[in-house]
Design brief:
It comes from Peribacillus butanolivorans. The chain is of the alpha+beta class. The protein contains five helices and 16 strands. The strands form two sheets. Strands 2-3-4-1-13-16-15-14 form an eight-stranded mixed sheet.
Length: 315
């Protein structure tokens, strides 16, 4: 039987100043900062997580904010556009909101859907699309009511150096189905109602350069820890080099790079973000893994501010 992922678990990107990052994703887009921790591989840097009210899989975007890092270049081997889905009937609200904060956007149509395309402050390419699928977020913040709030990912546009190889992986390894082709794009769908649509751009772009304003990796969903073990064996059986299991505190992870150059992860849905702090208080304090607790005092003194706040003026 063909193994199938439900779709996107999370997307992780590299950005600049952490407060600018929080101001945009919480202050402008109204998302909840569900976790403030550090990059376990580089503890002097935050790892910030944003999503719906509980950080549901399929809603989570995570960031490594490196204020002094060089600017990247979006290109082949990367996620080209991160797509967010909002409730039906809310696009006009988002047009007005982006305009209020002086965020330039363009309208585009793809596969019969209208998108608002724009960049975040550090150069990540984003878009909003309205769909009925997926439950509404229950989170309201900074002038974004729950009935207009970002539900989570609509999907992503992938830029690959080998479109045929990447499309073969999506179908044969990850279990997505090809559902449409239009112009320069081919669309694939997973069996979930959020984070479920992947568009492959057929044109091969120049190779991307990792840095500020680029996506580091895209993570697919594994149902649980047993399913995760099955995924590692399954992906390896197709000849991909898969990493050992890594405990990321809020999910377990494995990684592999597909032939078109994109770094993929498979992450477990459990345990989620409320196991080390309550759902009500998530994101309100710096959370550290046990092996870094002894360094809390110095970290809290040296890390730059990163606090969700209601924005009263244009940014």
């Amino acid at each position: 039987m063909l193994k199938q992922t439900k779709g996107i678990h999370h997307i992780t990107a590299i950005v600049g100043n952490p407060q600018e990052n929080v101001d945009f994703y919480a202050g402008v887009l109204g998302m909840r900062m569900v976790k403030k921790t550090v990059n376990f591989d580089d503890p002097g840097t935050y790892h910030l997580y944003f999503g719906d009210e509980s950080g549901s899989p399929g809603s989570i975007i995570t960031f490594f904010p490196w204020p002094d890092a060089y600017q990247g270049r979006i290109g082949s081997g990367q996620v080209g556009i991160t797509t967010y889905v909002v409730p039906e009937g809310s696009i006009e609200f988002w047009e007005l909101r982006l305009s209020k904060f002086n965020i330039e956007f363009e309208k585009a149509t793809r596969f019969g859907e209208e998108y608002l395309e724009f960049n975040d402050p550090h150069g990540l390419h984003l878009e909003l699309v309205a769909r009925k699928e997926g439950k509404n977020s229950e989170w309201s913040f900074g002038g974004v009511p729950a009935d207009k709030a970002v539900k989570g990912f609509g999907g992503a546009v992938l830029l690959t150096a080998k479109p045929d190889k990447t499309m073969k992986l999506l179908e044969e390894v990850m279990g997505l189905k090809k559902i449409a082709e239009e112009g320069n794009f081919i669309r694939f769908k997973s069996n979930s109602d959020i984070g479920n649509l992947i568009d492959i751009k057929k044109t091969i772009m120049p190779i991307g350069k990792m840095g500020v304003g680029t996506v580091h990796h895209l993570a697919w969903r594994a149902n649980d820890f047993d399913d995760h073990k099955d995924w590692r064996e399954h992906i390896g059986s197709f000849g991909y080099g898969v990493t050992p299991f890594t405990d990321r505190q809020y999910f377990d992870a494995i990684y592999f790079r597909e032939e078109g150059g994109i770094l993929f992860e498979v992450a477990t849905d459990p345990p989620g973000f409320a196991h080390d702090e309550s759902k009500e208080t998530m994101g309100s304090k710096l959370m550290l893994p046990p092996w870094l607790e002894e360094k809390r005092e110095i970290m809290e003194k040296t890390l730059l501010p990163a606090v969700p706040r209601v924005l009263e003026e244009d940014i």
